[in-house]
Amino acid sequence: MGRTIFIKEIICISKEPRLCPTCEKDDRLEKELIREERSCGKTILCSRCEALIVITSNNLRQVELSSRKDDIIMLKEPHIIRKVEY
Q1: What is the pLDDT of residues 12-55, one digit of tens each?
Q2: 59 pLDDT band (50/70/90 cuts)?
Q3: Edge-to-edge strands of the sheet including 29-31?
Q4: Is the bond preceding 78 in cis, omega lying within 30 degrees of 0?
Q5: How confident is the model at residue 5, as a pLDDT?
Q6: Alpha-carbon span 41 to 54, nearest angstrom
């Protein structure tokens, strides 16, 4: 059995960021750990602030998440979906 991944915030962004938009650090970024089915975009998980960064040009209102490994994905309530522009 894999690990449990908690997500507090989902951030939609058009370009791949160097730092997490929420905590502005890069030491706990994990790429392509979670797959977002609706946008088919790349994902980056920040395990420090529990934010999932979805790199897509689409405006997401609902998400369909699946794990690439045998991990359990849990959305914390209430979770936020927001779009960030640079």
Answers
A1: 999 999 999 999 999 999 998 999 988 888 999 999 999 999 99
A2: confident
A3: 29-31, 42-46, 51-55, 4-13, 72-83
A4: yes
A5: 94
A6: 6
What's the burial of 79, exposed, middle or buried (CB within 10 Å: 0-12/13-18/19+)? middle
Total number of residues shown for the chain: 86
DSSP letter assigned to residue 25:
-
Can you list the positions of beta strands (E) in the chain?
4-13, 29-31, 34-36, 42-46, 51-55, 65-67, 72-83
- Tell me the C-alpha distance between 82 and 34, whole Å: 18
Whole-structure pTM value: 0.89
The CA-to-CA distance between both ends of the chain, in Å, stands at 38
Q: Which of 55, 39, 35, 45 is nearest to 5 (CA)?
A: 45
